């Protein structure tokens, strides 16, 4: 290194002397004529600087994302040093495609197909090859309960940059289908949010929505992209309890199942391995990065007049449920988090629970008389469908209520 620095200093110090009109045009032998063209000029300096930089091997500091599917195709960013002259990136000894050198500290590449497990990442420059042992993991059958539909989130669906990055950071597939129930589920990443009162521009909050408090969810979880349908319930449980079925309600198989109590859902969970979301998980997923009364993308809204875009509720439902997915999804790709049917949560309900709620992974009171319902329904007003609005109902309940449904969750 010292020899190269000394030579560079001497070269630059004397460079002006060699670039006189006579010297720059005279073809003569000179030790500083590095490219042999008989002229000492900028081309020789460029060659020296290139050779100088090439003497430093690259380093790899970070790889994002650090995992991807077996079929390859994951767009990976490698951050490190001395990467400007990168000529090859390999994953498990197989060359990546679409190598793009962004700068001396960043390169991009697309992973090739691979085998399940961790593989080394190798970066080759003129100075040699640098390897990061186990730097990338090919995900195989870690989710033995689900079929992977899309590993990386669709940026047209997951429009919030923080949520998008959070999903990638988990190393888990974004969109899957539960094998036992055929329910499509989306990954919700860990995160922190403010839970509680979100008034609309026309309606305030109730006392059980206060105080507003910070909540951190430390674990990623999967949540149904849609409310559980009548067809999905019937396939597992063998019968359909829903009111909104038959000739008066076309396409009822893709409407949400209803007239299901919290206790009835326990049988569905036992048969599938699924669960109900906690109340905190539900609100975090509903908000999807927004802080407003309603989760209309991209930033949410407090305007009750815009609820029609994302929810079936009293003003537009025609007093019945509707097929899932008919309204705009939120920033996570989840549909009907407002309206259509009430959604049961796992928690016991406590009207003063927020005052004593843990700030990390709250799971509700240890006991009580009622279970939590969220989201409200086709029979609810706009004020009730707010993201923070909550209600408690006796678990067995009157199953003749054609507005009680649910959304399935699962821990990876």
List the helices and strands and how they pair.
Elements: H1 2-18, H2 21-25, H3 42-54, E1 59-64, E2 67-69, E3 75-81, E4 88-91, E5 94-95, E6 97-103, E7 106-110, E8 117-125, E9 128-139, E10 146-150, H4 161-170, E11 175-178, E12 184-188, E13 191-195, E14 213-217, E15 221-224, H5 230-237, H6 262-272, H7 279-287, E16 342-348, E17 371-374, E18 390-393, E19 404-405, E20 409-410
Helix pairs in contact: 1-3
Overview of the structural elements:
The chain is an alpha+beta fold and 412 residues long. It folds into three domains: 52 residues, no CATH class; 81 residues, Immunoglobulins (Immunoglobulin-like), CATH 2.60.40; 265 residues, paralog of FGE (formylglycine-generating enzyme) (Alpha-Beta Complex), CATH 3.90.1580.10. It has seven helices and 20 strands. The strands form five sheets. A five-stranded mixed sheet has the order 2-9-8-4-5, with no helix packed on it. The chain has a five-stranded antiparallel sheet with strand order 10-11-12-15-20. Strands 1-3-7-6 form a four-stranded antiparallel sheet, with no helix packed on it. Helix 1 runs antiparallel to helix 3. The two termini are 50 Å apart. The N terminus is likely disordered.
């Amino acid at each position: 290194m010292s020899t190269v620095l000394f030579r560079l200093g001497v070269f630059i110090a004397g460079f002006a002397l060699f670039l006189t009109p006579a010297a720059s045009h005279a073809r003569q032998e000179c030790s500083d004529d590095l490219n042999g063209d008989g002229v000492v000029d900028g081309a020789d300096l460029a060659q020296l600087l290139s050779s100088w930089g090439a003497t430093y091997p690259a380093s790899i500091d970070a790889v994002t994302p650090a995992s991807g599917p077996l079929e390859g195709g994951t767009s990976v960013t490698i951050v490190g040093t001395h990467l400007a002259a990168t000529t090859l990136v390999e994953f498990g000894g197989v060359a990546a495609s679409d190598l793009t050198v962004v700068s001396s500290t960043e390169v991009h590449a697309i992973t090739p197909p691979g085998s399940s497990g961790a593989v080394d990442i190798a970066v080759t420059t003129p100075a040699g090859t640098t390897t990061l042992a186990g730097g990338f993991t090919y995900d195989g059958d870690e989710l033995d309960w689900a079929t992977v539909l899309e590993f990386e989130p669709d940026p047209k669906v997951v429009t919030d940059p923080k949520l998008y990055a959070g999903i990638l950071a988990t190393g888990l597939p974004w969109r899957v289908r539960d094998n036992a129930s055929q329910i499509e589920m989306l990954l919700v990443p860990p995160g922190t949010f403010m839970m509680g009162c979100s008034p609309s521009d026309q309606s305030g909050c109730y006392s059980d929505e206060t105080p507003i408090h910070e909540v951190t969810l430390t674990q990623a979880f999967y949540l149904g992209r849609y409310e559980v349908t009548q067809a999905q319930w019937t396939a597992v449980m063998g019968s359909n309890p829903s009111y909104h079925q038959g000739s008066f309600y076309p396409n009822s198989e893709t409407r949400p199942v209803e007239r299901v109590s919290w206790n009835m859902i326990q049988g569905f969970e036992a048969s599938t391995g699924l669960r109900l979301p906690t109340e905190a998980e539900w609100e975090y997923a509903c908000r999807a990065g927004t802080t407003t009364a309603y989760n209309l993308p991209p930033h949410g809204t407090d305007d009750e007049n815009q609820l029609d875009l994302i929810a079936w509720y009293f003003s537009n439902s025609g007093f019945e449920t509707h097929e899932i997915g008919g309204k705009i999804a939120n920033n996570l790709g989840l549909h009907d988090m407002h309206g259509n049917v009430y959604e049961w949560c796992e928690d016991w309900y406590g009207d003063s629970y927020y005052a004593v709620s843990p700030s990390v992974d709250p799971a509700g009171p240890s006991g009580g008389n009622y279970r939590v319902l969220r989201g409200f329904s086709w029979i609810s007003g706009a004020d009730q469908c707010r993201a923070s609005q909550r209600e408690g109902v006796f678990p067995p309940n009157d199953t003749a209520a054609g507005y009680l449904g649910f959304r399935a969750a699962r821990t990876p």
